[in-house]
Amino acid sequence: MAFRRMAVSIAAAALALGTARAESPLQGEWVDLTHTLDETSVFWPTAKAFHHDAESFGQTEGGYFYSAYNIRTSEHGGTHLDAPIHFAEGAQTADEVPLDRLIGPAAVIDVTEASGSDRDYRFTAQDVLDWEARHGEIAPGAIVLFRTGFSKFWPDREAYMGTAERGAEAVAQLHFPGLSEAAARLLKERDVAAVGLDTPSLDYGQSKDFIAHRVLLGAQIPGFENVTNLDRLPEWGASVIALPAKIGKGSGAPLRIVALLPKEE
């Protein structure tokens, strides 16, 4: 009898677990929007490259395997967060960015055609309005992601950034798309949670004033840069979770960003 009660209890628990899983809001297809962070990762020309150095790797004297590494990295390389303080004095640091700016519905704006014909293309307010004509006005709290198609060039620095050179002199040679001031100001008006894209910077490569950064980060709207796999997301309906390393007083941080696709009816 005790065995039967135990079997019934296990069956009931399994059924409850199955029901809970079926009803979970996290069920569906997940898409990783993050580039692997390693020695081939693309970093800003003035930033120090990523290093991943083995401290221990192999069998120990105790007879078990053990591995541990030391890493050295810039905040702004690979897929990463731009915290508001990156361009706004006194604004939120990486550890202070609220979770509701890192989790939300994704509005994916496709600018691949224009970006493909002009490496220095700046996304316009009209690009945003065209998206809204199809889906309605972007809701407050949405995470806006611009898809240029440039992630296909990763990690070829010259193809992705416009130059493989490093150092301060290389900044003038950068050529890739980014936001115009008008687009940034419109998204600020929409009160979006965050803005991301599949290029190295919110501003286009030839920017000298970094106005998109200044507008968005000055409004406490963080940026997600060097995102990938945006071609796998619909224009509307996916949900995004973008969790950075919680670096105290950081101006940015490595980012793991994923999307949950909407369930097919």
Automatic annotation (TrEMBL):
The organism's place on the tree of life at top rank: Bacteria
InterPro entries assigned: KFase/CYL, KFase_sf
UniProt xrefs under SUPFAM superfamilies: Putative cyclase
Keyword annotations of the record: Signal
Cross-referenced Gene3D superfamilies: Putative cyclase
Residues making up the signal peptide according to the UniProt record: 1-22
PANTHER family: CYCLASE-LIKE PROTEIN 2
Protein name, entry field: Cyclase
Organism: Novosphingobium indicum
Species classification: Bacteria, Pseudomonadati, Pseudomonadota, Alphaproteobacteria, Sphingomonadales
